[in-house]
Design brief:
Blueprint (H helix, E strand, L loop, with lengths): L2 H23 L17 H4 L2 H18 L4 H32 L5 E13 L4 E8 L2 E8 L11 E7 L2 E7 L2
Parallel strand pairs: 3-5
Antiparallel strand pairs: 1-2, 1-4, 2-3, 4-5
Length: 171
C-alpha cells in the first residue's frame, strides 16, 4: 500500500467514527468544532479538525484513484481536497441553520409537570426535571416555608427556564 492509501484509510475511518458518533450520541444542538458568524465564512472553520479531515479525504481519494504521483495529479488532488473541505463546510452551515430555525425556544414555563430531582429542606431550594423543547432538563426550584418535597415527587411548576415555583403537588 502506498502512503496515500494509508491516509485515505485513516481519514475515512476517523470520518466514519465521528459521523456515526454524531448520529448515535449527538444532540439537537449539533455540537461541532466550528463557530458561525454573521458573514458565514471563517478561515478557521476550514482549517479546523473537520476541515482538515475532509481535505485529507478528497486529497487521498484522488491520488488513490489515479495511482500516480506527478505534479499534475498532486495539484488536482489538492484542488479536490479544497473542494471537499469547502463543500462539507457549506453543508454543515446549511444543516446547522435549518436546525436552529426548526427549534422552538421558550423562556417561560407555565403549568408544566415536573419531577423533583433534589430538594434542600433548610434552604428551600432544589432542582426538578421539566420537559422543554421535547427533552428533559433540570431547572432550579424555589420553594416556600413549610414545603417538604421528596426525590421523585411529581409537582406542577411555573416560572422561567432558570427558576420555577411550585403551583400544586401531585401524588
Amino acid at each position: 500500500m502506498e502512503w496515500y492509501d494509508w491516509l485515505l484509510t485513516g481519514a475515512g475511518t476517523i470520518f466514519l467514527l465521528t459521523s456515526v458518533g454524531s448520529l448515535l450520541f449527538g444532540n439537537a444542538d449539533m455540537e461541532t468544532d466550528f463557530d458561525l458568524n454573521a458573514d458565514g465564512f471563517l478561515l478557521s472553520d476550514i482549517l479546523s479538525f473537520k476541515g482538515m479531515l475532509h481535505f485529507a479525504l478528497g486529497f487521498s481519494l484522488t491520488l488513490t484513484l489515479w495511482r500516480e504521483i506527478s505534479l499534475l495529479t498532486c495539484s488536482i488532488a489538492v484542488a479536490v481536497g479544497i473542494v471537499f473541505a469547502l463543500v462539507l463546510y457549506y453543508l454543515y452551515n446549511v444543516i446547522y441553520k435549518r436546525l436552529q430555525k426548526s427549534m422552538k425556544y421558550t423562556d417561560t414555563i407555565s403549568e408544566a409537570e415536573a419531577e423533583v430531582y433534589f430538594w434542600n429542606e433548610e434552604k428551600k431550594i432544589g432542582e426538578v426535571f421539566v420537559t422543554l423543547e421535547g427533552r428533559p432538563v433540570t431547572v432550579t426550584l424555589q420553594g416556600a416555608e413549610g414545603m417538604n418535597l421528596t426525590k421523585g415527587q411529581k409537582i406542577i411548576v411555573s416560572g422561567t427556564r432558570k427558576t420555577v415555583y411550585p403551583l400544586e403537588f401531585l401524588i
